[in-house]
Write a structure and sequence with these properties.
162 residues, alpha/beta, Leucine Aminopeptidase, subunit E, domain 1, seven-stranded mixed β-sheet, 5 helices, 33% helix
């Protein structure tokens, strides 16, 4: 399915999608969720943060791994993509591996659409053009639709990005 790039609020826009509503974000393999979009996920689903931290303890979360969490009612699925460890810069190859794992897993989980924020854009991030190419290629090879929110705009409806 093609990858779609939009502007909007990925959490608000998801309310218009039938369950399961799936999200993904770039995660720190140490289990920390104290920077960037991870903070919003942690505030929205504290149980996700606890489960992810438990998985990451003792080095169980490696670069390129994907941690899947589903809320108690099964309405929301979150994929944490193991993209970096601490302050080390993420790599495009790690993103590609994590995306491949995520879309395969999502298909098995009954997920047909995943909303993602701009990936790898934080401090010391990956080149935006390369990230967009990898996301586009992952979508082309996948039965799962990827919707990337390139720019946050508080709104109930996403709009195509330029």
């Amino acid at each position: 399915m093609p990858t779609t790039f939009v502007k909007g609020d990925l959490f608000e826009e998801a309310k218009m999608v039938p369950p399961p509503r799936a999200f993904a974000f770039a995660a720190d393999c140490s289990g920390a969720m104290d920077r960037g979009i991870a903070v919003a996920f942690k505030k929205r689903w504290p149980a996700l943060a606890d489960a992810y931290r438990a998985r990451a303890e003792g080095g169980k979360m490696q670069l390129g791994d994907v941690f899947m969490w589903r809320d108690g009612d099964g309405e929301h699925v979150v994929y944490a993509l193991g993209m970096q460890r601490g302050d080390k810069k993420p790599k495009v190859s790690t993103l590609a591996r994590a995306l491949e794992t995520m879309v395969a897993r999502a298909s098995d989980d009954g997920v047909s659409r995943i909303a993602l924020p701009r990936i790898g854009a934080g401090k010391g991030g990956i080149d935006r053009v390369r990230v967009k190419r990898v996301l586009t290629e992952a979508g082309e090879r996948s039965p799962v639709s990827l919707v990337v929110f390139e720019q946050f705009i508080r709104s109930s409806e996403p709009s195509p990005s330029a």
